[in-house]
Amino acid sequence: MTESTTRYGAVTRRAFLGGLSIAAIATTGACGASTSSGSSSTAAPAPAASSSSSATAAPSASSSSSASKGKQIPAGAKATVSWTYAASGGMARNPYMAVWIEDASGAFVKTLALYHRANGDNWLDELTSWYASSGGTDTTTSGTVPAGSYTATWDATAAAGGQADQGSYFVCVETAVEHGSESNVRQQVTFGSSTAKTALDAAGSIANASVDYTV
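The structure assignment produced for this chain is given below.
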């Protein structure tokens, strides 16, 4: 009876000790898995912080680069427009003529020369292109002149005042004869920091047209 009880107690103790070892191992394994899983879920948001900081930097670089302004045409620079008006023959009246400058977008800058009846002129809008561009503002009135060669000079200022910026402009020459034909030259020319001469294409009664730009 005593030996049997002793043998039973020994077996029970071994089983009990064996059960504790298995539980301890299971518990240790479970904590390890939990720690590993928690660590990987904590690290995941890190790339998002990096992405958000680069998105914020982009607009500031873009806005700073768009603030530049063009350089003005050098003081003292001038553009001399030359052209020849050739009469179409017969008893044609003296032409109306206009010379003006437009910017690269086609906006009016300044009238350089305007030849028409000095007083009570109801036909000024016969210079249709100049009139549409300038609004009919008569800034350089002169009487009409016969066929021949003429010049007009731009001092690189705008009609509204101030020095114009360097860049491309349209040089425009228009002639119109009462009850007759109309001729137009409109050509893009660059006015910058260097002297240059540009030939303008002939059109209708306008020939030998050019722009001599000096700085």
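Interim note for the steering committee: Confidence is low (pLDDT under 50) at residues 1-68. The first helix runs from residue 2 to 43.
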